[in-house]
Design a protein that fits this description.
The chain is mostly beta strands and 149 residues long. The protein has one domain: Metal Binding Protein, Guanine Nucleotide Exchange Factor, Chain A (Beta Complex), CATH 2.170.150. It is built from 2 helices and 10 strands, in the order βββαβββββββα. Strands 6-7-8-9-4-3-10 form a 7-stranded mixed sheet, with helices on one face. A hairpin with a 2-residue loop joins strand 6 and strand 7. The protein is globular, with a radius of gyration of 17 Å. The mean pLDDT is 95.
């Protein structure tokens, strides 16, 4: 994908929604300890964009994660939605919060000194589809009538 295209996204519960002009060439993985702690992951997939390219349809809450930056999130379900410096014109949106994140690839690693190397190339790990975990699939069917995507 080259150039900008409108993409929608939001939080897990649907309370926060947005539309953003996304340039997939600005996708990257951040490995800094602040992002690791803010997301609970070993890294976070972001796409950088001008704040003016982000339209919040139903607003997020903002957490002052440091004296120089803040992070949008849903206070209802906890979904992390991005990162923004207090005084900058740009921000990041989390790739995982996009409605259709498939096909977006990272172009660089940021804070590479904090990379957890064993989590970078996981191509050799065994893969277990959700459909093969019949007990969990049945729990979803019993509770909602279907297995989530």
């Amino acid at each position: 994908m080259t150039g900008k295209r409108a993409m929608s996204g939001g939080c897990q519960c649907g309370a926060v929604r947005y539309t953003a002009q996304i340039d997939a060439s600005q996708a990257y993985l951040c490995h800094c300890r602040m992002c690791q702690r803010a997301t609970g992951g070993v890294s976070i997939a972001f796409i950088g964009l001008p704040k003016s390219d982000m339209q919040w349809e139903s607003g997020p809450d903002w957490y002052a994660s440091s004296p120089i930056a803040q992070r949008p999130f849903c206070s209802r379900c906890g979904t992390p939605l991005g990162f923004a410096f207090n005084d900058g014109e740009d921000m990041d949106v989390t790739v995982g919060s996009l409605d259709e994140p498939y096909g977006i690839e990272p172009h660089w690693h940021f804070a590479s000194e904090k990379i957890h190397e064993s989590w970078i190339d996981t191509s050799g790990l065994k893969r277990i589809p959700l459909s093969e975990h019949t007990a969990l699939s049945q729990r979803w069917i019993d509770a909602t009538g279907e297995v989530p995507e």
